[in-house]
Write a structure and sequence with these properties.
This protein has 130 residues and is an alpha/beta fold. It is built from four helices and five strands, in the order ααβββαβαβ. Helix 3 packs parallel to helix 4.
């Protein structure tokens, strides 16, 4: 009976003693700091070097569509009828040809579509519109 009365006089301790926990964490930290450099095992291995030369950039032609159905290929004016033949000739010379078409904001929509159609009929596969 004496036990029950002695326990009721003092309030229960609800605090956790953190000191042992901090001690354990510091010991683990030191262990990891010591063992981590030992885990770094590198294999010295000669890697193969690439001997492939990068491909040459493709030939780029610039086609400008201006007002009044004026088509300029690399600065030289062409009629819509002769543009297709010139593009086909250049496509036959350089199969990886890239055609960049720049359309003037004042140009007719029909002129731009005629230029695209001529390039497509000439067999130019890579067309970019700027």
């Amino acid at each position: 009976m004496a036990f029950a009365s002695a326990a009721s006089d003092r309030p229960a301790i609800a605090d956790i003693n953190v000191t042992p926990l901090v001690d354990v964490m510091l010991v683990l930290l030191i262990i990891f700091m010591v063992t981590t450099p030992l885990l770094d095992q590198r294999l010295l291995m000669p890697l193969p070097q690439s001997r492939v030369t990068p491909p040459e950039p493709p030939t780029v032609l610039r086609l400008e569509v201006e007002r009044g159905d004026v088509l300029r290929l690399e600065g030289q004016a062409y009629a819509p009828a002769t543009l297709q033949a010139e593009l086909a000739r250049r496509q036959a010379q350089v199969p990886e040809l890239v055609l960049k078409i720049a359309v003037d904001p004042q140009a007719d929509y029909q002129g731009a579509t005629n230029a695209l159609a001529a390039a497509e009929r000439a067999g130019v596969a890579n067309i970019s519109i700027e």
